[in-house]
User: What shape does this take?
Amino acid sequence: MIWFTWRLHRTQVYAGLALVALVAAVFLPYGEAARASFASHGVGACLARDTGGEPCQTAMRAFIQEFNGIANHLSTWFSPIPGLIGAIIGAGVLGREYEQGTWRLAWTQSVPRGRWLTQRILLVAAGITAISLTLSQVFTWFRSPVDEVSGRFAPGAFDLEGLSLTGYTLFAFALGVLAGLVLRRTVPAIVVAFAGFMAVRMPVEFWVRQRFQTPASRLSAPTLQHTFGPSSVPVVPGKPGWTLGYHLVDGSGRTLTTAEEARLQTQAQAAHDPDAYLRGLGLHLRTVYQPADRFWTFQFIEFSVFAGLALVLLALAVHRLRRRGA
Assistant: This one.
């Protein structure tokens, strides 16, 4: 089965290796430039001491303005690729067998069809995992200077670093296998698998992920800049987390309404010292966030979600193939 699977999927293996080489050729030079800028702006020294001083704030803003846009743009461009990779490979496992009629030979040999599919899935999934983990390492190296300042919870970082990329690809692969079995056509199966992948991934990214754990919160003295124009400054100096929202609260802990905040902003801007004016009202700025040290916990949770769904779909595909006739 190993030699048989290799013969069937060697083109995809070569394509995967070519993709890794292409990604490295595109991203590694940007990573080198980011490291040079990180050192020249003195960002590392600032993070080692503290991030509250204005010189450090200026240095970090200059660095982020230079590289955060590039990092997010390149990462956003790559984000759909795991779904496409998994869907294309998965759809061909059974869809191509039906289209070309090779199932008549493959499933009349001594190896039962269920075992044939199981072994093939395991071998292909191992290859997908190896390629995905390698890509994750490239992205992690590329983004690491930016992550030091803006954190690893940004979508361009979280979706491509750690284990999440592998989970996405395996899930799309499983969808492709099942779609190929049901539709018996490769291209329609790719379309269905990719659409299903996006239909699950988007709600997880934009709604479910932030609820993996109850967010933390902290109170700080309000300033005009951070209250009405939050900057990219980390919630905890040197440990940027995932900021979910800012809310002005009064002395009793009540969150001010939008109308009240708008009125306060106008009044503060008209004051001689806006920050002192806000503090004099007894207000606090409550920041709701996910701490940076939860990154790997969230990674394991998200990987478990997508890998678990992949296992369920693949088990269903094997079960259906065993029970159905050709």
The chain has a mean pLDDT of 81.
